[in-house]
Amino acid sequence: MRRFADVFARRAMRVSAAVPGLIVLVILLALVGKSRTILGLKSFAGLLFGSSWHPLRGDFGFGPFLSGTLWVTLAAMVLAVPISILTAIYLSEYAPRRVRELAKPMIDLLAGIPSVVYGVWGVLIVVPFVGNVLAPAFGATSSGYSVLAAGIVLAVMVFPTIIHVSLEVFAAVPQSLREASLALGATNWETVRHVVLRKGLQGIIAAVVLGLSRAFGETMAVLMVVGNVARAPKSLFDPGATLPSLLANNYGEMLSIPLYDSALMLAALVLFGVVLVFNIAARIILVRVERRSE
Amino acid sequence: MRIRRRRALEERIFKVLMAASAIAVLGGLLLIVGTVVVKSLPALRLSMLIQTPKGGFYLGREGGILNAIVGSLYLASGATLLAVIFGLPIVLYLNLYARPRSAMAVFTRFSLDVLWGVPSIVYGAFGFIVMAALGLRASLLAGIITVALLELPIMTRAMDEVIRLVPQAMTDASASLGATKLETALKVVIRQAMPGILTAVLIAFGRGIGDAASVLFTAGFTDSVPTSLLQPAATLPLAIFFQLGTPYPEVQERAYASAAILTLLILAISLISRTLIRRISKHSVR
Question: How many independent structural domains does chain A possess?
């Protein structure tokens, strides 16, 4: 009886272990299946880079949304990467133990805040700040609902991701290397720059790529502050729209217009594909880092 | 002499930059929670918590968001349960049955990593396709399935990390007493890793309750508390989103209050998981 239970459990668990791989495959197949309708009628490149989005006329160019996504993601990364990495260095190399033990749960907390709440904060603080302070300071006029506002909100959202992975990477750098550098008379910062950062470079790249893919796919917070205009932004103070916000905004009407649902599922497929590539790249780098430190 | 001063200066500059960054990150957290709580005060009343909205789709400016609170709790509980049912066997298989570097184990972990990075809006779109294929309408059930997909990789990865830490000596000891792998798994490994497993479950629950993009397509929205799995269900994040989207300042204020409720709920979950761990880890062997 015990043997039977064990054999049965072994089989059942083996089957369940195949579930994650199957989910990836099924999501991919479902999205491809749905987007084939529109891909059969129009060219993929034309859809991806086309600048005209008029579903009623049958124009489904993702250009404005793709460009909006790139602007927003880029703005977020320019802000988030230096701040997160400097914070991670501070926490791992400089901060006293007590500060580090206090900061870690707070960073986890930041990661746990729902994106809608980030969105509310964006609407209350970031949007007025961009509209009333930043834009006039640069001689631009803006309602505040802009690519920049979305970038700032996203930057705060990806802090925890980049900091968390970077901390792990720094912890994997052998202590003896630091001691050797310090013993040669290097200052603390020189040790960080020439030893810790150099040794951890690949891991930091992976951390940044993971943050990038998180920013790329974020929906609700961006949707609430980006302005949702289907036009490619020309400056940071312009409103825009992103691929995820396109999906979230139009789910209601997608069944009433021909090809609309297929076009939106193609947008989801593009998102899935990009995030897939980013994640695979980051994982490959991280696995290599792990092997080397073993 | 001059070189030494330059080096000291560089050290100083970067120290200031780093401290400023750390303050910006932690200040960001305080600013977010602080803003939401302060802005919510004018509209925050007990009636928000215990009444359903009056006068359709929140435009009535009366009543509360009980429908969304209960809807979110149902949805996240159902999804978390589903994710545990599928997730726990996966983790046990990876750590007890599979050989560490076997192709199957590597591929499964890799798939979980990929799923972890998939944006929730993509899960929402996928859930919508499945729903349409099965002939379901937007409902609590469809929402539960979609959110379970979202929670599965978060939960399994967190569980994997703690179960990996169970000492080999413990499982060896159990095996040498004649226990089968299943008995070792249920009576030794799960018990030893219980604090970590519970944290993983609570992390997933928190993510499930806070996610909006995945339920936008699948769970629907309603002003009443759902009484069956096939009815649509309101959720807290969407209630916030819809209230904020109205043109009326009074209703927007209620959105801030709802956001404060959601934030406090998440903070409470995180606190509970911390104290739970401290309590339960007393019974773990160190």
Answer: 1
User: A50, A35, A87, A78: which is closest to A268 by C-alpha?
Assistant: A35
pLDDT single digits (tens) B193-211: 888 888 899 989 999 999 9
Instruction: Examine the domain organization and report whether B57 and B36 are in the same domain.
Output: no
- Which tens digit of pLDDT belongs to each residue from B239-253? 898 888 888 888 888
A196, A178 contact by CB (below 8 A): yes
Rounded Cα distance between B168 and B157, Å, is 20
| CATH code, domain with A162 | 1.10.3720.10
- The answer to whether residue A15 sits within a structural domain is no
A279 domain-assigned: yes
Of B97, B113, B240, the CB nearest to A13: B97
Query: Which of A53-57, A60-64, A127-131, B155-159 shows the lowest per-residue confidence on average (mean pLDDT)?
Result: A53-57
A40 touches chain B (CB under 8 A): no
One-letter-per-residue 3-state SS of B8-30: HHHHHHHHHHHHHHHHHHHHHHH
How many residue pairs from chains A and B have C-beta atoms closer than 8 A? 253
Scored b (16 or more CB within 10 A) or e, B135-166 reads ebebbbbbbbbbbbbbbbbbbbbbbbebbeeb
ipTM of the complex: 0.89
- Whether B57 has a pLDDT exceeding 60, the answer reads no
Chain A residue numbers with beta carbons less than 8 Å from the beta carbon of B97 are: 10, 13-14
| Residue A79 clears pLDDT 70, i.e. is over it | yes
